[in-house]
Amino acid sequence: MSEEDYEDYGMFLLFFSGHGCNGKIYGCGEDKSMCGTVDLNTIFGYFQPHEAHESLKTKPKVFLLDCCRGKLSDDGSKGFHFEDNYMPPTHADFLYAYASAPLFQAYVGCKEKTDDLSVWTHFLNLANDIKRGEHHLADLLTFVQKDVLDYVPDDKKQSSNHVNYLRGFLDI
Q1: How wide is the angle at C-alpha 140 spanned by C-alphas 48 and 107, nearest 5°?
Q2: Model confidence pTM above 0.90
Q3: What is the four-CA torsion angle of 93, 63, 142, 9, rounded to 10 degrees?
Q4: First to last CA, the chain
Q5: What's the distance, CA 95 to chain centroid?
């Protein structure tokens, strides 16, 4: 990846359709002689700023992965039925938002504020005050994520993340 020039592109998008499990994807060469697994973190690592081509470092990198992530089968939310006997998937109607990426710290204290709010909570409050009524919650979290990513307290970086399983839009 580091040899390609992406200057003429607005983003990098990888679409993978195949098999996967526990953070790995499975693949084979054309002649099926070379089959094996690749850890997704290895693939994602090629796009980190220290590995990626200069022209790709600040561009969005989107990974669409059409594959399993485990072996469990979702039989729906037992005991809860909608009309027509529909059972929603177990994870339906959840949105998880975190102040930091998995395994990383969330920092407290913004130089613009004197309170002890985390950087993420500061920008979440700010976005809510400015953008209330204009966007859905998932969109608002994207604005907050950008603000957190761009904020540099004492040269430390932070990246929030959210996972959306909502079946609809939440206006705030």
Answers
A1: 55
A2: no
A3: -150
A4: 40
A5: 12
Q: Which residue has the higher pLDDT, 2 or 132?
A: 132
Q: Tell me: the pLDDT tens digits for 129-165?
A: 877 778 888 888 888 888 888 886 667 788 888 888 8
Give the closest residue to 109 by CA, choosing from 151, 150, 145.
Answer: 151
Cβ(100)–Cβ(148) under 8 Å? Answer: no
Comparing CA positions, the residue from 145, 153, 68 lying closest to residue 101 is 145
Give the integer Cα–Cα distance in Å for 153 and 78. 46
Buried b (16+ CB within 10 A) or exposed e, 123-133: bbebbeeeeee
In the numeric block, which tokens belong to residue 80? 């809860």
Look-up: residue for tokens 């359709």?
Answer: 17
Mean pLDDT within 59-67: 83
Q: Identify the CA nearest to 137 among candidates 160, 162, 119, 118.
A: 162
Which residues, other chains included, contact 35 with Cβ-Cβ below 8 Å and sequence gap of 6+? 26, 27, 28, 29
